[in-house]
Amino acid sequence: MHFVAMLAFSMPGMEFGYDLGLTLLSLAVAILATGASFTMMNRAYRSWLMLAAAGLLMGLGVVAMHYIGMSAMQMSSSISYDGLWLSISVLIAIGAATTALWIASRESSQLQRLAAACLMGVAVAGMHYAGMRAAIFTVAPGTDMAEGSASIGQTALAMSVSAATFLILFLALMAAMFDRRFAVMAEREADALRASEERFRSLYQDTPLPLHSLNEDGCIEQVSNTWLSLMGYSRDEVEGRPLINFLTEASARQFRQQDLPELIAKEVLPPRDYRAVTKSGKFLDVVAAAKVERDAEGNFLHVLGGLTDVTDRKRVEDALRQSQKIEALGQLTGGIAHDFNNLLAVIVGNLDLLRRRLPADDLKANRLVESALEGAQRGASLTQRLLTFARRQDLRPSAVEIPGLIRGMADLLQRTIGPQIRVDTQFPLHLPQARVDANQLEMAILNLAVNARDAMPAGGSLKISADEPVLPSGVNDDLRPGRYIRLTVSDDGEGMNDETLARATDPFFTTKGVGKGTGLGLSMVHGLAAQSGGRLHLRSCPGKGTTAELYLPVATKEAEDRTVVTKSEPIAIEVSSRSLTVMVVDDDPLVLDNTSAMLQELGHVVLTASSANDALIKLNSKPKLDVLITDHLMPGKTGLELIKEVGEHLPGMRTLLISGFADLDPSELQGVLLLRKPFSLRELTSALQRVSSSAPIIPFARRART
After folding, report:
1. In principle, which of 279, 413, 500, 663 could form an S-S bond with 496, CB 3.0–4.6 Å?
2. Domain residue ranges in the chain
3. CA torsion angle for 432, 434, 438, 443 (degrees, to 10)?
4. What's the CA gap between 233 and 277, in Å, rounded?
5. Quick one: fold of 394-471+478-559?
């Protein structure tokens, strides 16, 4: 613009040209200053200070271009400048450049950018003419214009600059077109990338899996909505915080010291178990896995990981392990109880026989025998508890009126728990009867009352109540749907923590002091409930007492009498006036000899057999047999199988089954008398009396086969 405008400048009688070097320098200064200014404004970080610096640089570049171009003029005069107009020209250049840069750097429209270009052009022209107004030409006499350095004419220079300018403008226009096209393509790609990232972010956040991404320090960058729902936090409370902040101390230490370094080193972390803590303070068992993501150049991007809530699965696994443990303990205790019953049968039987042979005036010997018998009976009671826990005790379920049973044992309850504890009972009217063994239920209630008493050393209250819940299907896996009687025994004692509550029904587990408990009380109650078709449910909290709920099936009809010989009938022991021929079958020699000795003491003729097959062989050679007494569990054939086979040949044969325990269906015992081990001489006498009156004596003879 400068050199074209100088075509309009003329001085009468004076010709002038331009120094080529200074002319090119003025062009270079203008181009460099303008390019530097736009470069500064194209940086990502912009500020008013940056704008002022870029405007100052461009304005001074335009001013320098003008005055260097003036210095390039070759003429017979010297040039000086008016200070005021020179300052005005500088201010116009700087102000116009700053304003144009500000408009161009904004997200402006094409019209606004055109206005900025016009403003810049007018301002440059204004600066030029203000600079020319400041110029003062003083003619130097005697100056030879023909001499001096090489120069170029004013018209030629103007035409050259104009041509170069239009060429530059054309090239700039073409570059702008391509730049615009590339900018549009880049914008489209950026929009597509943003849309893809948004879709990924939406997919990531809305996935049904609890996912998270971490930075290299283990801090959370993003989480899915499912992750937030699982942990109970909002997004602002999670993102930016370390993952270990949401784990227990032990799990956080494991992740920080072991798993995170392994993950960074190997770039993959196989599933690991952790304990997470939700916002509400609830603990979750989770399994976490992770993988390191890198870009194409191998630079670290983030860690992608996820959580799997396995709390319910672990609870089920723990319950299964507990059930298997209880089942294994039940089998073990059941087997021990069976063998122990055999030993007790020998001890009780021999002590009973010894007592009959002691002189009545030998008080010391009689007292020793009585003490031994009492100890044996305590052992038998312990064995019954073991059998109840193992669910192998022979129960006599019947229709039991719960309120009447509790009222009948009120005095016993009060004496058991003492005067410091108040007993409150609450039963609804017309409560149905429960199907359960009444004697075992009394023992279970006493066990629960004793536990409550021990939990209230300073006294308190014991509440016993019952109701009739109806359980629909799917509510409880341990109970069939239907009507139940729920007997509730609750106290306001010390209570139990979760660890103690989880082991409360384990056999031999007790929190009482040495000698103050066997650890079989709740085990027996649990076994009774399970064997009766119900369940025991315990609730407890430290300082708030314990509640035991015993679910029992409702009795729909009277229980069938299974004809079990009880131990409550006082029978006089006398030598029988009529001698019976009795065969005793037992695989244990001690029990066999003891039972034979007791029968002989009663005056009967005894035949023995060590197995069912041995008994069948001896029955063939014996013309007459009055009673068959057999153990149940024996090698080869059981006692019931022996009785059934004998019954096929002689339906009227009198039989008596003796056993410490038996996993027998009640229907299998129909018509068979059962005497539990250990038994005394008195109980054996009662059983024989019932057997003798059950059917006529028929000689044994093998039925002819057809």
Report:
1. 500
2. 1-149, 207-392, 394-471+478-559, 581-693
3. -110
4. 11
5. Heat Shock Protein 90 (3.30.565)
Q: Classify the C-alpha dihedral 371-376-381-382 as positive or negative.
A: positive
Report the candidate in 125, 7, 165 with the shortest Cα–Cα distance to residue 73.
7
What is the distance between the alpha carbons of residues 196 and 592, in angstroms, rounded to a whole number? Answer: 88
pLDDT digits (tens, 9 = 90+) for 46-63: 677 887 888 788 878 778
Please write the tens of the pLDDT for every residue from 55-109: 788 878 778 877 777 777 777 677 777 788 888 878 877 877 777 777 666 655 6
pTM, full prediction: 0.43
How many Cα atoms within 13 Å fall on the side-chain side of residue 318? 10
Handedness of CA 619, 625, 629, 632 (dihedral sign): positive
3-state secondary structure of 221: strand
Residue 632 in this model has a pLDDT that exceeds 90: no
Tokens of 356: 């009959």
539 and 546 Cβ atoms separated by less than 8 Å: yes
What number is the average pLDDT over the span 551-555?
A: 91
Contact 464/488 with Cβ under 8 angstroms?
Answer: yes
Q: How far is CA 259 from CA 254, 291, 324, 425, in A?
A: 6, 12, 34, 58
Reply yes or no on whether the pLDDT at 486 is more than 90.
Answer: yes
pLDDT at 568 over 50: no
Read off φ and ψ for residue 496, nearest 5 degrees.
-130, 150
| CA nearest to 64, candidates 84, 89, 40 | 89
**Rounded distance between C-alpha atoms, residue 662 and residue 634, angstroms:** 12
Give the residue carrying structure tokens 């929009």: 191
Give residue for tokens 């896995």: 289
pLDDT band of 250, cuts 50, 70, 90? very high
Mean pLDDT of the chain: 76
Q: For the residues 419-433, what does the mean pLDDT come to?
A: 89
Report the alpha-carbon distance of residue 539 to residue 546 in Å, rounded: 6
What pLDDT, on the 0 to 100 scale, is given for residue 147? 43
Residue 673's DSSP bridge partners are 656
What would be the CATH architecture of the domain defined by 581-693? Answer: 3-Layer(aba) Sandwich (3.40)
The Cα 246–Cα 223 span in angstroms is 13
**String of b and e for 572-609 (b: at least 16 CB within 10 Å)?**
eeeeeeeebebbbbbbbeebbbbbbbbbebbebebbbb
Burial pattern 172-204, b for ≥16 Cβ within 10 A else e, equals: eeeeeeeeeeeeeeeeeeeeeeeeeeeeeeeeb
pLDDT at 633 over 60: yes
Q: Predicted confidence band at 688 (pLDDT cuts at 50, 70, 90)?
A: confident
Burial label for 134, CB within 10 Å (0-12, 13-18, 19+), is buried
User: Tell me, which fold does domain 207-392 have in CATH?
Assistant: Beta-Lactamase (3.30.450)
Q: For 340, what's the count of Cα atoms within 13 Å in the CB-facing half-sphere? A: 18
